[in-house]
Amino acid sequence: MAAKGKEAVNEIDEKLAALGKALDISKDQMRMLKTTFDSFDLEKSGNIPVDMIGQILDMLGHQLTAEELSDIIAEIDEDKNGEMDFEEFAHLAARFLVEEEEDTEAILRELKDAFRLYDKEGLGFITTDLLREILRELDDKITPTDLDQMIEEIDADGSGTVDWEEFKAMMIG
Predict the structure, then answer these.
(1) Average of per-residue pLDDT values in the chain
(2) Any idea which fold 119-172 has?
(3) What is the pTM (predicted TM-score) of this model?
(4) Helices 86-118 and 27-40 meet at what angle, rounded to 10?
(5) What is the pLDDT of residues 71-127, one digit of tens each?
(6) In which domain of life is the source organism classified (predicted)?
(7) What is the 3-state secondary structure (H, E, C) of 112-148?
(8) Looking at domain 2-103, what is its CATH homologous superfamily?
(9) Contact predicate 134/142, CB 8 Å
(10) How far apart, in whole angstroms, are the C-alpha atoms of residue 31 and residue 28?
(11) For position 7, what pLDDT does the model report?
(12) Pairing status of strand 161-163 against strand 125-127
């Protein structure tokens, strides 16, 4: 009995891997999509109502107009049954995942450029005094106490410097 269950799990994993490869998204992203899909498949029927698409995309940080949403639903629900299976859902979500990855890469490039701008000598770090000035410029209402706390948190090792990884973590959160 356990062998059959394991075979079924392996078959599902293989299908997910193949679909992920076809959509050019990672295994982790496929697992996340499957978990998301399953959480909306309340009746465990293997389908979710297409009217959930707006809510799902909203949760993923993509607010769409009614017209955009209507176009997507018309495209996804080809058979007009008002439902979509996981494969249809994955095709839809993959578009938004790729977009998100590109946005993240662009943000990281901009942050790296900003870091290099402040790291004029190319030492791979900036001083906490310089960081203090940068943070004051970003928010002129920040109190000295809040600034001290932020610097202390960012420069956890107390070195008096902030390297690229610490800077990135601070800027991204």
Answers:
(1) 80
(2) Recoverin; domain 1 (1.10.238)
(3) 0.50
(4) 130
(5) 888 887 777 888 888 888 888 877 776 555 556 677 788 888 888 888 888 899 999
(6) Eukaryota
(7) HHHHHHHCCCCCCEEEHHHHHHHHHHHCCCCCHHHHH
(8) EF-hand (1.10.238.10)
(9) no
(10) 5
(11) 63
(12) antiparallel
